[in-house]
Amino acid sequence: MPNKYHIVLLPGDGIGPEVVTETRKTLEALTSLFDLTFDFSEYLVGGIAIDETGSPLPDDTLAACEQADAVLFGAVGGPKWADPTKSVQPEQGLLKLRKALGLYANLRPVKIFPQLIAASSLRPDVLAGVDVLVVRELTGGIYFGPRQEGSEEAYDTLFYTRPEIERVVRVAALAARGRRGKLTSVDKANVLASSRLWRQTVVRLMTDEFPDVALEHVLVDAMTMHLIRRPADFDVIVSGNLFGDIITDEAAMLAGSMGMLPSASLGDGARGLYEPIHGSAPDIAGQGVANPLATILSAAMMLRHSLDEEDAARAIENAVERALDAGYRTPDLANTALPDQTIEVVGTRAMGEIVRSHLAQV
Ligand code: NAD
Q1: Per-residue model confidence as pLDDT tens digits over 51-69
Q2: Which ligand 1 atom is at minimum distance from the Cα of 78?
Q3: What are the pocket residues of ligand 1 if the criterion is a CB atom closer than 6 Å to any ligand atom?
Q4: Of the residues 255, 284, 303, the one at which a domain ends
Q5: Nearest to residue 252, comparing CAs of 227, 218, 280?
Q6: Residue 94, domain extent
Q7: From the CA of 279, how far away is ligand 1's center (Å)?
Q8: Burial level of 40, CB count in 10 A (0-12/13-18/19+)?
Q9: Among 34, 50, 193, 304, which is most exposed with the fewest C-beta within 10 angstroms?
Q10: Per-residue model confidence as pLDDT tens digits over 96-155
Q11: Domain check: are 205 and 303 in the same one?
Q12: Average per-residue pLDDT in the chain?
């Protein structure tokens, strides 16, 4: 009997449905190559969920996610729901879902595809060999600490507990052990008490549980410089919520395109939420030109982290590489031709089909 996985699809708004459709078809295509099958069910989230139910995360959506092996998320938001005076916003659906599923570790790999090196604003020699995984704490820190807002004064509180730090650092250290064995912890321990607790906790955990993983500490301000000067030196980077938010966006820009970068949000246990790092791209929604590769690569992360199907994950990643090698690009990557290469610009559906045609057993 093949392994059967129950996947909840949350296409959301804008280009979300377009990129999720191509990803679903790609997962379905794997079933003829590997001993696995999928049971997909689709639910509402974000703006479309507000329109239909009044809530960005309807109860039946959350209940389905709680029962699923993994959740594949498209994107939410758009001008239709952008009024900041409204108390209900599409993005609340995603934040509530992460919190409800206890997804405290956000993983964002940034790998430079040599075929797309021209998409980045950095020099090719700086980018050669870049393969970084940023792990950001997602459910604590200053975004969730006590706060007060007034017209004359306001404050937010950066609050962490030792167990909150330990669990996310453990995720990062385990990932480092399976990669090149190096962990960079980012904090502001020269100024912040919460960062000093962060650093002490990291040192103790790494000494006790991961003596085989090399550890370094870098202050967040220095990290923003090192990341663009010598990005290839980093393997896994772990950080709290606020610093991680900034570093993940900076790291994303190494790749040059929003349309290529996947992400995973994990908690205790195997269930995870997988999504492209980009938003709903209302400027190109409905035109059939969105790049589906970030979402397709998010499905590869899902196969790896939630479903333990490493071969199928690698099959997707290899197929994406081959599609790029063959010269196919969506319009966001139209200017990435190498000097001796001709490229063909294709739409969302065609890119999905090309990836599927390159799927092969690993
Ligand atoms: P965005 O990521 O949606 O778009 C930024 C730019 O990148 C746009 O020019 C867009 O066309 C382009 N782009 C993004 N994804 C692409 C893809 N797959 N293929 C080709 N081009 C792509 O960010 P934004 O414009 O700041 O936000 C638009 C909406 O998305 C807002 O409502 C925002 O709140 C929401 N948003 C949602 C998420 C999420 O659902 N996780 C994340 C970020 C932004």
Answers
A1: 999 999 999 999 999 999 9
A2: 32
A3: 15, 75-78, 91, 94, 258-259, 275, 278-284, 290-291, 294, 332
A4: 255
A5: 227
A6: 1-111+267-362
A7: 3
A8: middle
A9: 193
A10: 999 899 999 999 999 998 888 888 889 999 999 999 999 999 999 999 999 999 999 999
A11: no
A12: 95
